Amino acid sequence: MRQGEVIFVANRISGFFKRCFPVSAGDCLKTLFGLFLATASCIILRELNPGDDYMAAVQVIYVLAAFMIARFTQGFLYGTFAAVAGVLLTNFIFTYPYWAFNFTLPGYPVTILCALIVSVTTSTMTARIKEQGQLQLEAEREKMRSNLLRAVSHDLRTPLTSILGASSAILENDSVLTAKERLTLLGEIHEDAEWLVGMVENLLTVTRVDGAVGANLNKVPEAAEEVVAEAVSKFRKRFPERVISASVPDDLLMVPMDAMLIKQVIINLLENVAFHTPPDTRARLTVSRQGKNAQFCVSDNGAGISPERLAHIFDGMFQRDREDHADAHHSMGIGLSVCNSIVKAHGGTMEARNVPGGGAEFTFRLPLEEE
């Protein structure tokens, strides 16, 4: 084998052992603590049940301990070690002669072997289930990245083309353009540049959100009305002509969140109303307590969303038709995809629907208490 092939194989083998047998001080403490609890429980059980009637329960307790250790640690190492240790502790502490190993009792080797097989199989299956869950999570992350890249390829190309066209028109026809025409072209360039800035902010947000389930978030209790007020203020600065009303609870509502990201979610939802509805459409933002969740709702009185699009609106591929209102080059796919990812990273849920009286409604819920 060539040197490069040898290095590649060695790296693959090293990676396999690191995944299956990771060394962690935290996992070591979990393993020792689990075995200690199992042993203490078995000793108490023996004191309460003199004789050998407790032996079956002892084996079940150690098998359960191996299962739980495998469940809450990484790789195969700790669950397998707990299984072997459980068998040896059963022999050493709970089998006559006590505090000594004895594998010569009639039928005992078979019993020990069966317990060892069950324990090792249990820990291995548990570790594999966790590994499959991790692979599924990685697949969801990759799907989200692919959707975002597809959306970005469209959303970046169109406004850049518009900026290029408008700037070329100014450079090539500056002497014949009127002041009004020049301001119109500059306004288009400015608007497209603002859209691109928002797109970059969304992409930077994706780097902070680690997939649909977990994320490196700075979650602290924040007053919902303050977050809403800042988001609405920023939206009104950009769209002063838009009519928007906000409603928050009378009582202080503290919600664990990354305030910067949640503000971006609210702003994105409000901007969708501005980009995809007629200028006279009214937007409404309401916040309320729903059981153990804080509910944020952004609605409008526009035409709503077609049913075929509604089912895939958070997939990152939602695009507008040419006949839709507002600027035809804007799409809402990447914004909603990022919003959904942010809410999921907070442990919340997000949904969209058409209001019976007309218009669309986007709702997301955030848990009020940390799990």
Q: Could you provide a short overview of the structure?
A:
It catalyses: ATP + protein L-histidine = ADP + protein N-phospho-L-histidine. The protein is α+β, with helices and mostly antiparallel strands.
What descriptors fit this protein?
single chain; alpha+beta; Heat Shock Protein 90; 2 domains; 10 helices; 7 strands; kinase; histidine kinase; phosphoprotein; transmembrane
Account of the 3D structure:
The chain has 371 residues and is of the alpha+beta class. The chain has two domains: 135 residues, no CATH class; 159 residues, 2-Layer Sandwich (Heat Shock Protein 90). 60% of the residues lie in helices and 12% in strands. The chain contains ten helices and seven strands. A five-stranded mixed beta sheet has the order 2-4-5-7-6, with helices on one face. A hairpin with a 5-residue loop joins strand 6 and strand 7. Helix 5 packs antiparallel against helix 6. It is elongated. It starts with a helix and ends with a strand. About 6% of the residues have low confidence.
